[in-house]
Design goal:
312 residues; alpha/beta; Rossmann fold; eight-stranded mixed sheet; binds NADP nicotinamide-adenine-dinucleotide phosphate
Length: 312
């Protein structure tokens, strides 16, 4: 097991994030991390924090709307303060779990960016960038990927199309007002954000201190979670039905697997954006390894975050 310290997780209020947080909280005392729960303020955040405390964990709730970069910066400042004052143990892992698939790619975040790209990628890049010098090695950064970045029969059942890559500045731009929202466009935006995360993960490893390891987790298809909450009711109903099939992933099953990626010795070797599908380290498709795109994601992300900062 890695040194026990503090783990930050985003999106702990439901489904995968919630079950991951609770799995970490339920560990034996000598292997139980302090938890920083970064999510939208409200009864759900308080409820998961209380449940984790009831399992024995020391927990801090950090209210943050990840679609708002000012909120993300404030959350990072809170984390830095907790670490600096010794209110929590050293930061050993960050799990960038929160995600959305917006059903209307015309929607802009308060910073002016397409919401799916803003929450899945930009918010986490901001948070990680603001916290990079606060990790204590050995430490892990775990990002959330999705097999939807490439053609994928199962996900197509729910209309989640594969990525159609474009420059990240384009991916961050909301669709024009005249574009009629449809599920294919939403699916492409989601898959593009997840492909951007793979490129970012590969590049991030080149920028962090030795002893900080970057990996990407794919929890398996978990139909029926709130990720598809914007989808038509019929599609959501199919998702819920498929979710009951044996062998299909669920947040209850994948949460403990994600906790293990962040904490267990078995996974200490993961680095360079290694991709783990549930319990299996998997080679990503050739499209997900591209030095030019990786460098461009890094540079464009910095530009986008800086530009948003200029409007604070
Ligand atoms: N479901 C799948 O089949 C699947 C497959 C592969 C990868 N994944 C990835 O796994 C992760 C978790 O997915 P899930 O299925 O558990 O999704 P989910 O049920 O929709 O939960 C998403 C979490 O992210 C949070 N979140 C979304 N927007 C936020 C915002 N603006 N600010 C703060 N928090 C926000 C949600 O908070 P609220 O409760 O406040 O909305 C919630 O806690 C995502 O990154 C997803 O892309 C999922």
């Amino acid at each position: 097991m890695t040194e026990t310290g503090t783990v930050l997780i985003t999106g702990p209020t439901r489904n995968l994030g919630r079950h991951t947080a609770l799995a970490m909280a339920a560990r034996p005392q000598d292997r139980r991390p302090d938890l920083l729960l970064v999510g939208r303020s409200g009864p759900e955040l308080t409820a998961v924090a209380d449940e984790a405390r009831a399992r024995g964990a020391r927990v801090h709730e950090i209210g943050c709307d990840l679609s708002r970069l000012a909120d993300v910066r404030a959350a990072a400042a809170t984390v830095r303060n907790l670490l600096a004052t010794g209110a929590v143990r050293p930061l050993r892992a960050l799990i960038a779990n929160a995600g959305i698939m917006s059903n209307d790619t015309r929607q802009a975040s308060p910073d002016g960016y397409e919401t799916t790209f803003a929450v899945n990628h930009l918010a986490h890049a901001q948070l990680i960038g603001d916290l990079l010098d606060t990790f204590t090695a050995p430490a892990r950064i775990v990002l959330l990927g999705s097999n939807t970045y490439h053609a994928n029969v199962w996900r197509k059942l729910l209309n989640v199309a594969e990525a159609e890559w474009a420059d990240p500045v384009e991916l961050a731009r909301p669709a024009p007002a005249e574009r009629t929202p449809d599920m294919t466009t939403s699916g492409v935006a989601y898959s593009n954000a997840k492909l951007a995360i793979l490129y970012y993960a590969h590049e991030l490893q080149r920028h962090v201190d030795a002893g900080i390891h970057v990996s990407v987790f794919e929890p398996g298809w978990m139909p029926g979670t709130a990720l598809g909450r914007g989808a038509p009711a019929a599609v959501q109903a199919v998702g819920r039905a498929l979710g009951r099939l044996p062998g299909v992933s669920t947040p209850q099953r994948s949460g403990p697997l994600l906790a293990a990626i962040a904490l267990d010795d078995t996974w200490a070797h993961l680095r360079d954006g290694a991709f783990v599908v549930k319990t299996r380290q998997t080679e990503v498709r050739p499209i997900a390894h591209d030095r030019d795109r990786e460098r461009r994601v890094w540079a464009a992300t910095a530009e986008l975050l800086e530009h948003a900062g200029a409007h604070r």
